[in-house]
Amino acid sequence: MKLEEITNPEFKNMINLAYMQGENNNIEAIEKIEADMKEYIKDNVFIISIEDAQPVKIPYGNNDEYIVPIFTDQREYTLGMQYFSLNVMDENKDYIIEKLDYFKKLKDDPNFLGYLVNISSVSYIINTSLL
Predict the structure, then answer these.
(1) Which of 10, 34, 71, 106 is the most buried (most CB within 10 A)?
(2) What is the domain count for the chain?
(3) How remote is the C-alpha of 88 from its chain's centroid?
(4) Rounded to whole angstroms, how far apart are CA atoms 115 and 67?
(5) Distances (CA, A) of 74 to 33, 59, 70, 98
(6) 113 lies in which domain range?
């Protein structure tokens, strides 16, 4: 599959809905959206940032905790790489196109907090409960 073939408009829509419902403090709607996200994640591929065939790990929080950046489409990937270059993090970065369970060991790592979707725009953290 080619980079330009990856589109996840439904997922981007879910992210926007989750933010909107979060602002309204609508817990029931957020839980429904997260259930839909969980199903969507199982069936669809994303662009996952890698370095030396391993997922890119961005420190987040304390005690070696980290998140892994992923992207919904080519535009978001391009913007993400620009963001990385602004923060001098773009060297040796590449990508793979896979389902999120590609790196199965991540979910077992207590320091892994989740995937950060679209780092340079309206980003969202897919926590491990959705994987």
Answers:
(1) 71
(2) 1
(3) 20
(4) 5
(5) 24, 24, 11, 14
(6) 3-130
